Amino acid sequence: MIVGIDLGTTNSAIACFRDGAPQLIPNALGDLLTPSAVSLGKDGSLLVGLAARDRQSTHPDLTATAFKRHMGTRKRYTLGRRAYGAEDLSALVLASLKADAERFTGETVTGAVITVPAYFNDQQRKATRRAGELAGLKVERLVNEPTAAALAYGIHERGDREPFLVFDLGGGTFDVSIVEVFDGVVEVRASAGDNRLGGEDFNDMVAKLARAAIDPEGTLVARGKESLFHEVLRAAAERTRRALSEAEDALFEIVWEGKAYSHRITAAEFEAAADPLIQRLRDPVLRSMRDSNIAVGGLSEVVLVGGATRMPVVRRAVTRMFGRFPNHSLHPDHAVALGAAVQAGLKARDAALEEIRLTDVCPFTLGVDTAMRDPTGRLVFGVFAPIIERNTVVPASRVHRFQTLAENQKQVEFNIYQGEARAVADNVHLGQAVVPVPPRPAGEVVVDVRFSYDASGLLEIDVSVPLSGLQRQWVISSGDGGDSPEEVAARRAALAELKIHPRDQASNAATLARAERCYENFIGERRQHIAEMILTFEAVLARQEPHSIDDMRAQVEAALDQIEGERFL
Ligand code: ADP
Ligand code: MG
């Protein structure tokens, strides 16, 4: 059996594909969500899930939570005498989910589709894969969380070009993504977010409200006990807040050093205090719409994902932002795992889903370092020149042209980076490409740098020097070496097809040629109109974005049909 797993910051879930539909699998306690928490128990054994989460307020030093935030980093969590990385802790959660699924279904789990945030970089994705392998799972594929959520909502059963906006507010992170089907392929068009905003921030806010009422003088807590008290407040705030999702008011209750304290909070009070957090939801929404070039009216669905979207105040804010009610027909904290199972079903070649292929977007920008002249003519080094921009649909291939900077320069050196910072030093260095060039005056030699990148993290760098005819290739693979040579060869062959510049692709070249011919055949206003269209089409071709090119080509063809038709009237 291949399962789908949502490995969340706060909660994880596992699902399988049965009888044509995805189904969540309950854990040993009968719960569909398993807290992503690990704690060292009294007898030295490691507890995972709810038992671990519950120990957070009693044994914060022996308990690790939210470790997904540090996936792919060197951060260590010390539980008792041993230290664990985020990867090890995630593996424990995955192993526990796997055991639950095997117990519940009586089948062996042979493989898993695991979801990751769309913005996870190579290191974070690799670490997630390794966590799966440590847990004894064959990781069939990593799927972006919003893609999974959109699959759970049946995006693949809709027509082309029906963009879904996935609004995911979890325990500690907020992600907005726009997912669309194009030519039968599910794509993430844009993702934006705030990785410091989630249900926990609402808890902190409730804890602060309640603390002001319970302990106005600030005398309740002895020095050194502050962090324990904070955990107690946090746990109580979580209960209060969940109650407020259903009721007009709720009691905030704690027991501290044998004494009970309580404070009643109304929904109105809660919502007023939540306003600054609610305001922070706007920006990422706007950014994702801008990046994807889609207007609110063009969205087919707005779907709610993440447990924190159960809060009525969040739902109202979403309704206001989009001027319509969001879709939450699935439980928001189940959607990602259900979608992962849809993808697992596809992997297992379930007939119901055979048509879907998935692509993703490049979650970060890939580029090289360059030097630029400032207005005074001085050279500034270490400036990032993006080649494949973040949110580009992959597989993608883009080429940029550079010029020599120095007199009789003998070679050109490109350092390759991933990241968003203008200064390359703040981005992740991936490698280096050096090519010899014929010595000429500065600026006379041009060098073309082509980046081709696919969903598995394979990056091919082709550098060519037209003047000398030199061509060199480098390959940077973030794959974990687990792929067979045949698989790698197949992926490289697929990339090779993309390397023809859109200008030279047959269909685009034909449209351009037709437009040029029409230009010669007409005069006056129509000729002017054709000239403008050619210029626009060429500009779109230069941007090398397949979707915009397809749209523009269709427009040009339609316009030419009309113009040519007119002639025979
Ligand atoms: P993640 O994706 O971060 O792992 P989830 O999607 O499971 O997390 O969301 C966890 C968050 O959802 C927590 O902050 C929790 O408080 C919140 N949550 C879950 N149920 C409710 C509810 N009924 N009302 C308010 N918040 C809720
Ligand atoms: Mg989540």
Write up this protein.
With 569 residues, this protein is α+β, with helices and mostly antiparallel strands. Helices cover 35% and strands 30% of the residues. The strands form 8 sheets. Strands 1, 2, 3, 4, 10 and 11 form a 6-stranded mixed sheet that branches. The chain has a 5-stranded mixed sheet with strand order 17-12-13-14-18. A 4-stranded antiparallel sheet has the order 21-20-24-25, with no helix packed on it. α2 (86-105) crosses α3 (122-134). It is globular and about 90 Å long. It starts with a strand and ends with a helix. Bound molecules: adenosine-5'-diphosphate and magnesium ion. Magnesium ion is lined by residues 8, 170, 306, 336.
Relevant terms:
Actin, Chain A, domain 4, 5-stranded mixed sheet, 28 strands, binds magnesium ion, alpha+beta, 6-stranded mixed sheet, 4 domains, Nucleotidyltransferase, domain 5, Substrate Binding Domain Of DNAk, Chain A, domain 1, binds adenosine-5'-diphosphate, 569 residues
